[in-house]
Specification:
The chain is 26% helix and 20% strand. The chain has helices spanning 35-38, 53-56, 62-65, 104-125, 162-165, 176-186, and strands at residues 2-7, 10-15, 67-70, 74-78, 88-92, 129-134, 150-155. The strands form two sheets. Strands 3-4-5-7-6 form a five-stranded antiparallel beta sheet. A two-stranded antiparallel sheet has the order 1-2. The longest helix has 22 residues, at 104-125. The protein starts with a strand and ends with a helix.
Length: 188
Amino acid sequence: MTGEQTIDGAPHTAVHQDGIGQPDTLERLWTPYRMAYIRGENKPEDPSADQCPFCRIPAMDDADGLIVHRGQLAYAVLNLYPYAPGHVMVCPYRHIANYTDTTVEEAAEIAALTKTAVETLKRVSKPAGFNIGMNQGVAGGAGIAAHLHQHIVPRWVGDQNFMPIIGRTKTLPELLGDTRSLLAEAWA
């Protein structure tokens, strides 16, 4: 059931909830695909390398694993649950949890791949800025704390604005496979 209302003098169609709660003027954008992430369906129960997705991904085909680039000691991969379009992660092949556990060579390659990811995203997507960082440990916000990974998140002014904060929804204008192809082809 809908009804015409005015909000700040402008006409607006309200969606009534048929007796469940109070009627409001909010639209509903359903994102049931997010339940896999919320339920932790792809998150390993066992933090060992056997169940670690970052250890399994390199054995996959690049397109299936969303791998953008393979280095000698680390690789760049799209985040399956991106914060923003083009969200890349750089992961060492070796199953380690902490940045301090990297070898000098691994740390150098993670840094070099991060730099190349930023340069590639600038050319392909023209973001206004970036969030770059590692979440260490569960308390530090790591979704998969057992395997080190660096996030490179392209950002645009107002890109996520109210949607994740109020709408608890992410808007992604491009399929992950398409994003992977663009970045892989443009990788320097």
